[in-house]
Amino acid sequence: MALAASVLAAPVLAPPTAAAPLADEPGPELIPNGTFDAGHAPWWTTPDVVADTSSGALCVNAPGGTQNAWDTIVGIDAIPLVEGESYRFSFRISGTADVGIRALAQQNQAPWTATYETNPTTSSDPALFEGGFTSTLEWPAGQLVFQIGGSDEPWTFCLDDVSFRTGPPPEPYRAETHSRVRVNQYGYLPDGPKRATVLVDDADAAGVAWTLRDAGGAEVATGTAEPYGDDRTVGSAVQRIVFDEVRATGDGFTLEADGETSYPFAIRTGLYAPLTADALNYFYLARSGIPIEAQYAGEAYARPAGHLGIAPNRGDTEVGCQAPQGYYQQWSCDDTFDVQGGWYDAGDHGKYVVNGGIAVHQLLDTWEVAARAGRSDLLGDGALSIPESGNGIPDVLDEARWELDWMARMQVPDGQQYAGMVFHKVQDDGWTGLPTMPWESDKVRQVHRPSTAATLNFAAVAAKGARLFDEWDADYAESLLAASRVAWAAALDTPDLFASVADGDEGGGPYDDDQVEDEFYWAAAELYLATGEGEFAEFLAACPEAETAIDPQGGFDWRATTALGRIDLAMVESDYPGREAARASVVDAAGTYLKAAGSAFEQPYRPIDGEYDWGSNAIILNNQAVIATAAEITGDASYRTAVVAAMDYLLGRNGLDRSYITGYGTLYSENQHHRWMAHSLDPSLPSPAPGTIAGGPNSAIQDPVAQQAWPDGCIAQLCYLDDIQSYSTNEMTVNWNSALSWVTTWVAVHADAEGAAASAPGEALPGGFPVWLVIVLALAGVLAVGAVVVLLVLRGRRPTA
Predict the structure, then answer these.
(1) How is residue 330 annotated by DSSP?
(2) In the chain, where are the structural domains located?
(3) CB within 8 A of 38, min separation 6: which ones?
(4) Contacting residues for 431 by C-beta, under 8 A, at least 6 apart
């Protein structure tokens, strides 16, 4: 989730082919000799190639075996870039191989800040690319460059008809959608909620008629949609379609409404177990310090180990500390540390304890979710495709252990300043470009000063891990608990050491957090549940966070962790005196999220200002987790229905008619921001793997691609680009996939099992009576009858027939 930098390697603009048509009347041509009729001057190349214009285009023979796109460049200087000025940019390219290249408008000197980037792919036939942008740079002598390096094999690149002119700004980007009828493109459960949303022109219009058809076109069901008025998050009037009563199963169903037809979808059981496995297998691909092997990940995702120090890579086995600067002046460090392993956090190569903490917690929690439901087989040994399968330990715990072991290495050893605390993160000393392979990056790695937040994250998850691993590896569990105690004591001694947002974060996200009462609460909760010791119960009782409601607007995340401790206190059997209060607070928060889900899209997310946050999809998932927990606590079926219905939004029933989960649905996100799963930049690289969730709409549009797409802002649900360069809307992160893993596990065991939706433990029957209450009353009745019989027998009488 780290922010990208605006340097040569920085992502900058959406592909020109995605932009709306530009207005007429461009300004004067700013490119001399863009048709190469007079040779190649004033164009230049890097020394590894020679320009040849004998064919009428500028062609170069690019060498193979280069590592980076910028290793081989064709460019031109003296291009004025005026801040606030809009430009049109077009060019024609071809090549003897299908290679993704980078075309940029940027500074002509370090740090090579770019104001525009597009990433076309060459083909044998010359293709024209056109686009436009508004400059964020004031640079009188800029340059246009075509970066064409990074190919394994030699190839020939040709460029022609280059034009660069001033002109009106491009129209705001508008995504193409298939239909105004928005459905869960993956599918619905036969006994679960089945809803869709249709966008209409008139908020006052009566409900439109709808028809459900099977794959053969036969009519299955009909009805009338429910008007919901205007929805400002999509900028349209909306209506809701409900077809819950349909029990037909199969693939290829479609909904027709208001003259339009939806994407196809399935209605069947068994939808969520495969998605759960894919969501969890994501973490193996994110591992650092280990080769990703084809036998587990598939040929497309096999790769060498990253950050083991094999040249040119700077490894994580002997990492020095960040040089003292600014906020960090009070900390110095001359040693090096072995911080290998763990998961790469997101699209970059950084590893961040606070993101790792919430991700580990949720993976450990998936095991408890499945075990409580009697479905530990779903996540047990052999359930995932990882090297540890077959070792007798549940695979999801093995995967969590990979990150736990790394977090333990981040704990400051004895004899060092801040011993027992945990380094906040390890990252590169500067931003790398896209794509950059983790085994090829030559950036210097550095650990950043410990923080109280990171220390408490480790204390919490190490204690939780100790409790869960005790059954499988008692020695490991003991070591985790010992490390957790050390971290807890260190945090108590240093309760206010915070990460800085201002200094020293070139190359990684700051993950700053100067409010750590919630982390103290979470860590104390996990230590109490692991030990039962009064010290931690007393801390919890005195902690102000114990009285704090779970955030009713935003939801929990790495910065707000109260819910993590609250849910475990509510769900794990213990003698904690405040357990019932914890359970009640979870139910209260779930009720708030249930109200938020009362829209035509039924996503449990309604920020006060209507503006979607960075990682909005993860917020929805984490809110689903709270609702799901309330379903277990209360047995109220409305909670379970809300969890399942919210999956519709993530799988296509949304403002963009798109599934945000790679590989699931008809139109799904597949160009998430990532350094090596970067197929859109280099066709030889893979796209993100199935089961990867994109961050989702972000009203703040905090990357240049999104800012160019919507210079005047965008409508909440529409603020998303499936573009590898749009890191603020389309990143992939471990703590977002952990949320997806948690929710899909819960749905798989509580709704998508044979008969689960009809007879789930604790479900309310029609009329609102929980099953448990009916059973208790029935048993009471049986006992009462039995007592009467006994009395009658004792009195020598028999009951009449």
Answers:
(1) T
(2) 21-166, 187-267, 272-749, 768-801
(3) none
(4) 4, 5, 7, 9, 10, 348, 506, 507
Please state which architecture CATH assigns to domain 21-166. Sandwich (2.60)
Q: Can you give the pTM of this predicted structure?
A: 0.86
Which residues are known catalytic residues? Answer: 673, 722, 731
In CATH, the number for domain 272-749 is 1.50.10.10
Residue type, 757: A
The span from the CA of 696 to the CA of 611, in Å, is 12
Q: Are 578 and 540 in contact (CB under 8 A)?
A: yes
Helix axes 353-372, 272-285, angle to 10 degrees: 150
End-to-end CA separation in angstroms for the chain: 72
Per residue in 421-435, pLDDT (tens digit) is 999 999 998 888 888
In tens, the pLDDT along 87-117 reads 999 999 999 999 889 999 999 988 888 888 8
Q: Average pLDDT, whole number, for the chain? A: 89
404, 360 contact by CB (below 8 A)? yes
Q: Which two tokens stand for residue 107?
A: 């500074």
State residue 407's pLDDT score.
98
| Nearest C-alpha neighbor of 345 from the set 511, 167, 520, 514 | 511
Instruction: Yes or no: say if 404 and 469 are a contact pair by the CB < 8 Å rule.
Output: no
For 500, residues 6+ apart whose C-beta sits below 8 A from its C-beta are 326, 327, 328, 510, 512
Distance CA 309, CA 316 (A): 7
CATH 2.60.420.10 fits 187-267, yes or no: no
Q: How far apart are CA 543 and CA 566, in angstroms?
A: 12
- Write 403-406 long-range contacts (CB < 8 A, 24+): 403/283, 403/341, 403/342, 403/343, 403/356, 403/359, 403/360, 403/363, 403/734, 404/360, 404/461, 404/462, 404/465, 404/480, 405/341, 405/342, 406/288, 406/339, 406/340, 406/341, 406/342, 406/343, 406/351, 406/356
CB 661 within 8 A of CB 669: yes
Q: What is the DSSP string of 451-504?
A: EHHHHHHHHHHHHHHHHHHTTT-HHHHHHHHHHHHHHHHHHHHSTT----SSSS
Q: Is 252 helix (H, G, I), strand (E, B) or coil?
A: strand
| Residue 188: pLDDT over 60 | yes
Residues 602/642, Cβ–Cβ less than 8 Å = yes
For residue 477, which phi and psi values (nearest 5 degrees)? -60, -40
Q: CA dist 361 to 193, 430, 458, 535, Å?
A: 29, 29, 10, 22
Nearest to 653 by CA among 279, 263, 267, 273: 263
Q: Please answer whether residues 317 and 308 qualify as being in contact, where contact means their C-beta atoms are separated by less than 8 angstroms.
A: yes
Name the amino acid, one letter, at 678: A
Closest CA to 306 of 564, 752, 677: 677
Give, as one character, the DSSP assignment of residue 426: E
List, in sequence order, every beta strand (DSSP E) within 193-234.
Answer: 195-200, 209-213, 219-224, 226-231
Distances (CA, A) of 711 to 24, 169, 170, 173, 198: 19, 9, 9, 9, 28
- Other residues' Cβ atoms within 10 Å of the Cβ of residue 329: 9
